[in-house]
Amino acid sequence: MDEQIIKTEYSELMQKSYIDYAMSVIVARALPDVRDGLKPVQRRTLYDMQELGIFYDRPYRKCARIVGDTMGKYHPHGDSSIYEALVVLAQDFKKGRTLVDGHGNFGSIEGDGAAAMRYTEARLEKITQEVYLKDMDKDVIDFIPNFDETEKEPEVLPVRIPNLLVNGADGIAVGMATNIPPHNLGEVADAVKAYMKDQNITTRELMKYIKGPDFPTGGVIANKDELEQIYESGSGKIKIRGKISIEKGKAGKQYFVITEIPYTMIGANIGKFLNDVANLVDSKKTSDIIDISNQSSKEGIRIVLELRKGADIEYLTSLLYKKTRLEDTFGVNMLAVTDGRPEVLSLKKIIEHHVDFQFETCTRKYQNLLAKEMDKKEVQEGLIKAYDVIDLIIEILRGSKSQKQVKECLTMGKTEGIKFKTKSSEKAAKKLIFTTRQAQAILEMRLYRLIGLELEALIKEHDETLARISRYEDILNNYDSMASVIMDDLDSIKKEFGRKRRTKIENSEEIVLKEAEIEETEIVFLMDRFGYAKTIDCATYERNKESADTENKFIFSCMNTDKICIFTDLGKMHSFKVLDLPCGKFRDKGIPIDNICKYDSSKEQMVFVSNLKNITDRELIFVSRNSMCKVVKGSEFNVSKKTIAATKLADDDDRLILVGIFDESDYLVLQSEEGYFLRFLANEVPEKKKTAIGVRGMRLGKDDFISHGYLLANRIEYKIDYKDKKLSLNRLKLAKRDNRGTKKQ
Q1: How far is residue 441 CA from its own chain's centroid?
Q2: 220-221 and 504-505: which strand pairing?
Q3: A single Pfam family, by name (predicted)?
């Protein structure tokens, strides 16, 4: 038994298995082939539609039928992947040229999904039928067995344009992804012709024809000068912007209208864009927008922002480009399967592979056509020759006992067993030399072909056949002739299916957003015990001072340009802008702090809240549960990050007990859980960095910890409730730091 077990290194086996799986996903599922620019699921779906006869001039067929047939014959990976591929091929806002003509709800540019496949219908587009699937009967491509070897499917479709460029591609494989933008069909055709005329053409010269991507959503490409490098390397980032215009309405109103959007905004990102604009208004980043409306329809995108009089349009434009997806980047990675392996391709390389593929398919096409014409020539020459000896052939037919005798007589001159009227006829029959193909054609010839006019038509047809043979041989033997055929074909495709460019290409200046100056005013910050915060103006606070002081836990005045800092028991400091808070009426509830910063009320508790300007030029004193104390300069908390570690805690169980503004004349009182009190001068606590743990403030017994900390101002009496009595903290015995303290009963 042991000798039958093959010992293998586990890591090596896993590595091989993973690589096999990865390559299977890359080649058979996720990435397009450079030759036809299609993924397997797309290729199989289009081929199946052709096999079902769902042509552009035929009635639509249920998508469920197409999906079911494709899954059963060619693509056993689930109906959802097939239908999703079918839907995308029919969406004109995703593809440069749609390949499927959809009938019914195939989704919208705003992210609405397509209806179920049982409700929708489809058929091939004319371009698909005539440019992608034509000539498959002429042996131009190889067919391979399907997944269960019961059917044959095309290895690749005989696409006559660089579909990888025209329609682009996207896909995620294992460890790699492709993202190729769509281009203008006419420009691509011109670029292919230019390459065929000069194979040493540079990327820059190709870009005289292909200006850049041409997105179906239009928009503006803002980094024209970077496109050459992107096309040279096959990867990079394209900066795209929406197209805007300013319209004037009644009573001097102005409307900021977006008529074209970045390609990356299609789908749910349109709704997100509208929300982002609304958030800019809510957060007071701009006050120029009065109303937002989405007036988009089947005719196109139309998003309208109603502006107030005197609106700063230049600033608003910059704000929308900078803070929303009205300006976005398209990450280009021109990855495709080439000779069975994935490869990042340059623009020139894609065109080169396409041209090689066209020469291969054209060679096979014209070899097939030539073979057919040569067969016709042979038959035609046999029939013309037969007219001259038709009486002899009839005599042979009448005197023969079988077709075999006739064929042998016509091809080899054998006359044994055939009855002839005269010896001269037999002698003439022995001289006949027809080919087997010609003999078969003579036997199958109908009597009406003996009419004189039919002979003339046959001779004319033979001349035409000879002309075609000559042409096909010239195409096959002459590079220029074949190139001319391909280029003429590209011209006809461009003429019929080409359209004007939609995306504008330019060099735009980098958006520099100058924040609108905010008038600095003093306000009052209020936060209740539930963590709801707001700001009100000073006058409102003075009118409602008694109620405000009663209802709120944290109250202090600050400037509207300031930041709020929240120190928590976990040793963190959360900060946010005062402007992020609503400023309104006194009775407004406010908003939870959890919603505007990373503070989590379910996991941490507030220890100290202050505005940043109040602590920047001062010092803060920290006390933890484990009796660690330190003083930290307030300037260390003037940071851009919204959440930082305000202090370092001794261990996971340690918590901040006290954070306060430090003054050398203050006293620090520490209260332990076991009832020990220690009062000492705050200036005994040394200054440390915020990353330090600090020094011991009070000696603690085993299992004892600091439960409360108090910072007492000099000459101000401070009393607490302790064991149903009033305890004056100012009268506690003054001691030194790092003592046990006094126990109170």
Answers
A1: 60
A2: parallel
A3: DNA_topoisoIV
726 to each of 619, 620, 706, 710, how far by Cα in Å? 31, 28, 20, 15
Count CB atoms within 10 A of the CB of residue 723.
8
* 3-state secondary structure string across 8-22: CCHHHHHHHHHHHHH
- The letter for the amino acid at 521 is T
User: Domain residues of the chain, as ranges?
Assistant: 9-180, 243-325, 353-496, 522-743
How many degrees, rounded to 5, is the angle at CA 680 between CA 623 and CA 619? 50
Quick one: average pLDDT of 696-718? Answer: 89
Please give the structure tokens belonging to residue 693. Answer: 């743990």
pLDDT of residue 585: 81
- pTM comes to 0.72
Q: What is the architecture of the domain spanning 353-496?
A: Orthogonal Bundle (1.10)
pLDDT at 19 over 80: no
Which has more pLDDT, 29 or 391?
391
> Residue 544: what residue type?
N
Residues composing the chain: 745
Tokens of 406: 């006739």
pLDDT of residue 588: 83
Domain 243-325 fold: Gyrase A; domain 2 (3.30.1360)
Express each pLDDT in 470-513 by its tens digit.
Answer: 999 999 999 999 999 999 999 999 999 999 999 999 988 777 66
Whose structure tokens read 């509830």? 589
State the Cα–Cα distance between residues 396 and 402, nearest whole angstrom.
11
Terminal C-alpha separation, the chain: 82
The 3-state secondary structure of 200-267, one letter per residue: CCCHHHHCCCCCCCCCCCCCEECEHHHHHHHHHHCEEEEEEECEEEEEECHHHCEEEEEEECCHHHCC
Segment 404-427, tens digit of pLDDT:
888 888 888 888 888 888 888 888
Residue 123 β-bridge partners: 101
Match 């009062």 to its residue by tokens.
679
Is residue 2 pLDDT above 70, yes or no? no
pLDDT category of residue 517 using cuts at 50, 70 and 90: low
Per-residue model confidence (pLDDT) at position 25: 59
Please give the pLDDT value at position 57.
94
Neighbouring residues of 130: CB distance < 8 A, sequence distance ≥ 6: none
**pLDDT number for residue 714:** 78
Asked if 119 is an active-site residue, the reply is yes
d(CA 382, CA 398): 20
SS3 166: helix
Based on C-alpha coordinates, what's the Rg of the chain?
42
The first and second tokens of residue 98, run together, are 């749609």
The DSSP H or E segment spanning 575 is strand 572-577
- Residue range 522-743, CATH number: 2.120.10.90
| Residue 614 phi, psi (nearest 5) | -75, -25
Return all residues near 382 (Cβ < 8 A) that are at least 6 apart.
Answer: 434, 435, 437, 438, 439, 441, 442
Q: Which residues are paired to 241 by β-bridges?
A: 220, 327
Catalytic residue among 10, 21, 60, 119: 119
Q: With CA atoms as reference, report the closest residue to 504 among 243, 303, 302.
A: 243
Gap between the Cα atoms of 508 and 307, Å rounded: 25
Give me the pLDDT at residue 659, please: 94
